[in-house]
Amino acid sequence: MTTRPMAVTPGDPAGIGPDLVLQAAADAAWPGGLAVFADPEALARRARELGLVVGLHEWHPGESLPCTGLAVHPVPLAQRAEPGRPDPANAPATLAALDRAVTAVMEGHCQGLVTGPISKAVISEGTSLPFSGHTEYLAERAGASHPVMMLVGGNLRVALVTTHLPLRAVPDAVTPERVKRTVRTVAEALANDFAVLEPHILVTGLNPHAGEGGHLGDEEQRIIGPALDAVRAELGASAQVEGPVPGDTAFTPRCLREADAVICMYHDQGLGPLKQQAFGGAVNVSLGLPFVRTSVDHGTAFDLAGSGNAGGGSFREAIALARTLSANRARANE
Ligand SMILES: NC(=O)c1ccc[n+]([C@@H]2O[C@H](COP(=O)([O-])OP(=O)(O)OC[C@H]3O[C@@H](n4cnc5c(N)ncnc54)[C@H](O)[C@@H]3O)[C@@H](O)[C@H]2O)c1
Ligand SMILES: N[C@H](C(=O)O)[C@H](O)COP(=O)(O)O
């Protein structure tokens, strides 16, 4: 089944997502092929702007892929997409592309989903949805109760207990249940999707110096520490869970030496160090979904859309990793 195409959504049509899809299609023949869910006219226009020659062929889930060129499942935009000028009027079509791609994956027509970058603000302004990110949106669509965002790049795998929420809401969102479920989901994904057995997982604290014994915050003593004790007892020898460790030194080479993944309490605690090390070549993976989904490590970069200067490394890595994870998951489920 690994010869099924990978579903691809370019993300915001005014961002660099369409550029990355077209560059990837022009550069290489992807094993299994790509099926892009997008407006074909907008893609064709962007290809001309970029000087790329890519044949676009209408495709519908269940059909064979064309022998050459790029398969495109048509999802028309409401307005002409101008590079670098996001238009909330196109937000419903951006989400419709995602919805149709998810359906194609869940119905087994595609082996996984690779998404280009979306502006959460544009989706929130152009739809009635309070859109906080693909991770949360896809989980809701797929009926998954606890998605976990992990970014993979350099020598790091970094997962988050909380994702897209205001910093002031973070402490209340770090609950024992959320900490336990995140560790479980990461341990399971490492084993099944990444083929890392008996992983060593580092978990950070929330406060400076992991709370300094309660003098700089007590979430480590009240919530994170007891949650980790409980999940350690549950996982037994199947995973080694260390923490809460101070967030500032968790990413030093000595702490990372044995770690297969680091779980951080909030977005910038974990993604800052990862993007410092690997921005442009890292991959965002949604764990805890019933299908494989990967994405780029960067945003819409409206300043670069249509210029030909967007680096395609993260997008290509996202396609490659989605294929590896799908194959590993299929093997684990045999
Ligand atoms: N996977 C996703 O959907 C995703 C990921 C991250 C951010 N976003 C969204 O993107 C929007 C813009 O976010 P931002 O400005 O914080 O980050 P950004 O990644 O879009 O841009 C940060 C900087 O990096 C540069 N950059 C980004 N991608 C690049 C590439 N491929 N090649 C060369 N340079 C690149 C940009 O030009 C900019 O200077 C936000 O709405 C955010 O929510 C979406
Ligand atoms: N937090 C991600 C990042 O910084 O790369 C990004 O916003 C994308 O998140 P979703 O995959 O949930 O859209």
Protein architecture, described:
The protein has helices spanning 17-27, 40-50, 91-106, 120-126, 134-142, 170-173, 176-192, 219-235, 253-256, 267-278, 313-332; strands spanning 6-9, 34-38, 56-58, 70-74, 113-115, 148-153, 156-160, 200-204, 240-245, 261-264, 283-287, 293-296. It is of the alpha/beta class and 334 residues long. Helix 1 links the parallel strand 1 and strand 2 (34-38). It is globular. Bound molecules: nicotinamide-adenine-dinucleotide and 4-hydroxy-L-threonine-5-monophosphate (4TP). The site of nicotinamide-adenine-dinucleotide has 20 residues, from helix 4 and strand 12. This is 4-hydroxythreonine-4-phosphate dehydrogenase. Substrate binds at residues 134-135, 275, 284, 293.
Overview features:
binds 4-hydroxy-L-threonine-5-monophosphate, Isopropylmalate Dehydrogenase, 12-stranded mixed β-sheet, 11 helices, alpha/beta, globular, 12 strands, 334 residues, binds nicotinamide-adenine-dinucleotide
